Amino acid sequence: RLILYRHLTDTLTADCNAVLKALQPIFQEQGMTETVHNWEDHGYLATYVKKNGSFANLRIHPHGLVLVDLQSYNDHMKGREEVDQLLNKVEERMKELFHGNIKRVKRLPAILRGGVIDRYWPTADGRLVEYDIDEVVYDEDSPFQNIKILHSKQFGNILILSGDVNLAESDLAYTQAIMGSGKEDYTGKEVLILGGGDGGILYEIVKLKPKMVTMVEISFDKQLVIQLSSSCKYMRKTCGDVLDNLKGECYQVLIEDCIPVLKRYAKEGRMFDYVINDLTAVPISTSPEEDSTWEFLRLILDLSMKVLKQDGKYFTQGNCINLTDALTLYEEQLSRLYCPVEFSKETVCVPSYMELYP
Fold first, then answer.
1. Cβ(53)–Cβ(65) below 8 Å
2. How far is residue 326 CA from its own chain's centroid?
3. Average pLDDT, integer, range 262-287
C-alpha cells in the first residue's frame, strides 16, 4: 500500500533535523529498522523497514515539504487500520512540532499493486484514474490486440483494447456524438463505418432505418467470428444483437482491412452519404512527420473523401480536450486534403473516459 502524505510549513528554512527527530520514535515503535541519508542543503531521506517487508520513506525537504510514502503487503482491514494509525501519529506529531502552523496536509488513497484486478488506467493526457472495477469479464489476445472487458460498478462493462479504455456500456454519449448528436436523418441513406468493433454505432444506426450500412472491422479474430470478438457477447447494452450475424436486413460487416476496401470502393465509384471513422483517436504525438499514426490518419481521410458524396458528411472522434496541440494539428491536416472541406466540432463528456472529448 502506498500513501503520499504532505506537509508544507510557512517557514522557508524548516529545521530538517528537528522534523527527523520528532518523527523517528513513531517508526521505531513499529519495530522498523532505520537508515538515514543526509544531503547538505537538500534535507534528509530516512527509510524504515519492517520484518515483514513493509517499509516507509520519509523525505524532509529544507523548504518545508515533508513526504511520507508507505508500502505495506497487508491489504486486509487490520493492515489498513495500522497504516492509518501510523499516519495519524505522523500528522499529530507534525502539528505539535509546528504548533499547528502547517499550510497544507494531503493524504492520498492507497494504490493496490499486483492485484488480480487491475483498477488503474491512464487517461489520454496521462493522468492515472482508479476505476471501481470488481470483475475481469474477459481477457484474451486477438491477432491484432489484447481485448479486455472489465466490469465497473458505475459504468457497467468496459471494453479495453491494448490498454486503452475504448467504450463502456454507460457511454451512449460517445456513440450519439460520433453519429451527429441526433441532428442527422439516416433514413434511406448509405453509411460506411470504419472500425466500430464494439458494435455501438452499428446498433444505433440500424434503428434509424438506413438503406444500407457497411461496417469494416479488422479487429475480429476470424476463427471466433461467431461470437464476433468479445464485445457482442459481453456488451449487449451497447450493441444489442446486431453483431450476432455478419449480415442483416440493412447492414453488412466486412472482416477486412479498411484501406484496401476504401481503395476498391473509390475505384468502383461507390459513394456514401455518411462515413463514420471509429478507427483511432487523434494521435497524441505532435510530430506528424515522425508518427506513422498521423500518416495512417491522413490516408484514411483522403480515401474517405473519395467515397463520400458531394453533400455527404464525415464523422470521427477527436481526443482528450486537454490535448490542444494535437487537436489543432488535426484541424491543420483538414486543409491539406485533395479537396476543400468545411468542418465543425462538438465536445461531449464520455462517462468512462472521465474527461471531455471533442
1. no
2. 17
3. 85
Q: How far is the C-alpha of 4 from the C-alpha of 332, rounded, in Å? A: 42
Three-state secondary structure call for residue 105: strand
Give the number of other CB atoms < 10 A from CB of residue 216. 22
Rounded to a whole number of angstroms, the distance between the first and last alpha carbons of the chain is 36
Grid cell, residue 225, equals 467470428
User: How far from 299 is each of 253, 304, 333, 338, CA to CA, in Å?
Assistant: 22, 8, 11, 11
CB 83, CB 93: distance < 8 Å: no
Alpha helices in the chain (DSSP H): 16-28, 77-97, 172-178, 200-206, 231-234, 236-239, 258-268, 292-306, 324-334
Q: Which three cell numbers stand for residue 308?
A: 463520400
Task: State pLDDT tens for residues 209-224.
Answer: 999 999 998 765 544 4
Instruction: Look at the chain and count its residues.
Output: 358
Look up residue 276 and give its amino acid: I
Strands of 162-280, DSSP E:
164-168, 190-195, 212-216, 251-254, 272-278
Separation CA 20–CA 219 (nearest Å): 56
Q: Is 347 exposed, middle or buried (0-12, 13-18, 19+ CB in 10 A)?
A: exposed
Q: For residue 5, is pLDDT > 60?
A: no
Whether 198 is catalytic is no
How confident is the model over 141-186, as pLDDT tens digits? Answer: 877 778 889 999 999 999 888 888 989 999 999 999 999 999 999 9
CA dihedral of 15, 18, 22, 24, whole degrees rounded to 10: 100
Per the model's pLDDT, the better-predicted residue between 91 and 306 turns out to be 306
Q: Per-residue pLDDT for 71 more than 70?
A: yes
Residues 6+ apart with CB under 8 A from 312: 271, 272, 273, 274, 275
Catalytic pick from 278, 291, 311, 325? 278
